[in-house]
Amino acid sequence: MTGDSYNFAYLDEQTKRMIRRAILKGLAVPGYQVPFASREMPMPYGWGTGGVQVSAAVLTPEDRFKVIDQGADDTTNAVSIRSFFQRTAGVETTTATEEATVIQTRHRIPEAPLGEGQILVYQVPIPEPLRFLEPRESETRKMHSLEEYGLMHVKLYEDISRHGHIATSYAYPVKVEARYVMDPSPIPKFDNPKLNDCPAIQLFGAGREQRIYALPPYTRVTSLDFEDHPFEATKADHPCGLCGAGDSYLDEVIVDDAGGRMFVCSDTDYCESRQRQSHRGKDAA
Amino acid sequence: MYVAVKGGERAIENAHAWLAEERRGDTGVAELDIAQIREQLSLSVNRVMAEGSLYDQDLAALAIKQARGDLIEAIFLIRAYRTTLPRFGCSEAVDTGAMACDRRISATFKDVPGGQVLGPTFDYTHRLLDFKLAADGEVPPAPEREATTAPVPHVTGFLNREGLIEEAPQDDTPPPDLTREPLEMPAERPLRLQALTRADEGFTLSLAYSTQRGYGRNHAFVGELRIGTVPVEMEIPELGFAIEIGEISLTECETVNQFTGSKSEPPQFTRGYGLVFGQTERKAISMALVDRALRWKELGEDDAGAPAQDAEFVLYHCDNIQATGFLEHIKLPHYVDFQSELELVRKLRREAGADQSHAGGTS
Questions:
Q1: How far apart are CA B50 and CA A85, in angstroms?
Q2: Residue A166: is it exposed, middle or buried by C-beta count within 10 angstroms (0-12/13-18/19+)?
């Protein structure tokens, strides 16, 4: 594939316009899932086709684009999506969160705070937070329109009565501006507080399920909980082995076959910039 | 321009190079060319065109070659290519009644005007491996006769004259386009048929089979199965009339289904309909059975709770490109989610007193 034979950012202008309309509608009704005519992309469904279409619709030639998967810029699918836009849009790319104007992500929100003027694009596998309680789309849409979220609260309550905790550790449901219950995509619940009052625009694209939803800047986003069982953002109880950060989400890396492991930041940009500032963890070389 | 490059990129490049080498196979064996695939693997080509929703034999053959014969991968290549094409408009409805039939059979009547034409079918072959074919695939030309120009009317039309079969709905509203609008429920029949014609053959077959075994049974007869070519006409706005823009081969199946009547409908035969690109009769028959099963509501039948009656279930799961993508994506990294699950399970185990071992800690 050569860059010349396709339109800027791959999709034709009509398609981009259709996606932008869905995005605008999503921004106008935060947390509402807007159906859109998702296109077949040259990567498989499940690889981030929703995020790619949203990115394609919002990218301009002046943008600086960052792609992360599991928080890292160098995971294979992040590399693949970044090179797709390098080839089809010729945009500048970066790994630095602060420098990026558009960040496409799968499963994480960067550790560095986002600012105004930035757009965070999430890849979403199942946009419907009620899907595993009710498999029918016709039913769940009705439940959203009637604001009928009792089933979700019962599920959370049953978790507590059975396990003592809400047994959801990622894709933890949130409520947007006290109206729509929304799936934040499979980010660890550690990231949930970052959704709230965020200065950046947050866009969610689900290609296979043909849905787009959005959080405009400074939207109130609360994780579902109970007064006596308040939401708690959790992570592994260790500092990063490489940069020593105590406030970042950690990956557990198995280092030998005798149970040895180390914990490192999942956000590679955050970890590297801390190491550049001479922060050292106990496993740093 | 600063471009971020890291380890994954080389791994991907090397994987692609290896893949290309594997696709080519032993270079001591002659390479397949597109024409060979198009001519000698034509049923694969037909399936790729049908489920790829793009009628182009050479592109389908190329996709099969590129996909190393993995037909779902080939369908994916065609779909991804198809998205980049502009949509010029909508053709006139093709007239399958005027089809130049290569094959045309009815299971409901011993003989019908236009005749029973077996055509090139596997139906009465004995499935014995032909070892001669391994050495020499050349065959003498098949016997020929003059093509008849007599009309080959639809078999269901004969039943219709007696009012024994429901009227086929006539509607000239342009059908919705599944590839341009999001699928939303409830889906009307044109949209359902559109989804079924590009649905996975295996999935459609199994659903149809399930109706035969009692899950939403509607007892189908193949009223007619016809395979052949039809001209495609399109109205050109500048001309103001329709002109022929090409010819495509189609398989059409009309089933005649037993129906003893319901609260809203009199006893009469009902219809299921399948229409698929190319010679794809297993798919077309399956499609007709599933179409009929999905019509339970309009015919006032009971909802037996069968999978094939459930439009949401069928339509949301029949597309193999969506299905394979979502299925296979679980091999992508999920270690962030898995880590959060690890933390949760460790916490629950700690509290249950089950975990006496070292939870966490580095070596």
A1: 30
A2: buried
> Cβ of A80 and B12 within 8 Å?
yes
Which residues of chain A lie closer than 8 angstroms to B354, CB-CB?
none
Could A79 and B12 be called an inter-chain contact, meaning their C-beta atoms sit closer than 8 Å?
Answer: yes
Helix (H, G, I), strand (E, B) or coil at A50: helix
Say whether B333 and A69 touch across the interface (CB within 8 A): yes
Secondary structure of chain B as H, E, C letters? CCCCCCHHHHHHHHHHHHHHHHHHCCCCCCCCCHHHHHHHCHHHHHHHHHHHCCCCHHHHHHHHHHCCCCHHHHHHHHHHHHHCCCCCCCCCCCCHHHCEEEEEECCCCCCCCCCCECCCCCCCCCCCCCHHHHHCCCCCCCCCCCCCCCCCCCHHHHHHHCCCECCCCCCCCCCCCCCCCCCCCCCCHHHHHHHHHCCCHHHHHHHHHHHHCCCCCCCEEEEEEEEEEEEEEEEECCCCEEEEEEEEEEEEEEEEECCCCCCCCCCCEEEEEEEEECCCHHHHHHHHHHHHHHCCCCCCCCCCCCHHHCHHHHHHHCCHHHHHHHHHHHHCCCHHHHHHHHHHHHHHHHHHCCCCCCCCCCC
Contacts of A238 in chain B (CB under 8 A): 360, 362
- Answer yes or no: are the C-beta atoms of B325 and A208 closer than 8 Å: yes
Please confirm, yes or no, whether A198 is among the known catalytic residues. Answer: no
Instruction: Tell me the domains of chain A and their CATH numbers.
Output: 3-129+172-223 (3.40.50.11310), 235-280 (no CATH)
**Where do the domains of chain B lie?**
9-82, 96-137+145-318
For residue B186, cis peptide bond before it (omega within 30 degrees of 0)? yes
The model's pLDDT over B326-349, given as tens digits with 9 standing for 90+, comes to 999 999 888 888 888 888 888 888
Q: Is the pLDDT assigned to residue B359 strictly greater than 50?
A: no
Complex prediction ipTM? 0.80
Burial class from Cβ neighbours inside 10 Å (0-12, 13-18, 19+) for residue A106 reads buried
Q: What is the pLDDT of residue B234?
A: 93
CA B215 to chain centre: 21
Amino acid B3: pLDDT = 38
In this structure, which amino acid lies at residue B8? G
Beta strand B241-257 pairing with B220-236: antiparallel
Asked if B14 is an interface residue toward chain A (Cβ–Cβ < 8 A), one would say: no
B288: nearest Cα among B222, B216, B206: B222
Nearest to B311 by CA among B194, B171, B179, B180: B194
Query: Residue A216 in 3-state DSSP?
Result: coil
Q: DSSP characters for A225-270?
A: -BTTB-------SS--TTT--SSS-EEEEE-SSSS-EEEEES-HHH
- Least CB–CB distance from B337: residue in A76, A170, A234: A170
Nearest to B22 by CA among B68, B76, B62, B61: B68
Span B29-42, pLDDT tens digits: 999 999 999 999 99
Minimal CA separation from A27 to chain B, in Å:
19
* pLDDT lower than 70: segments of chain A: 1-5, 285
How does DSSP classify residue A111? S
Cβ–Cβ < 8 Å for B329, B294: no
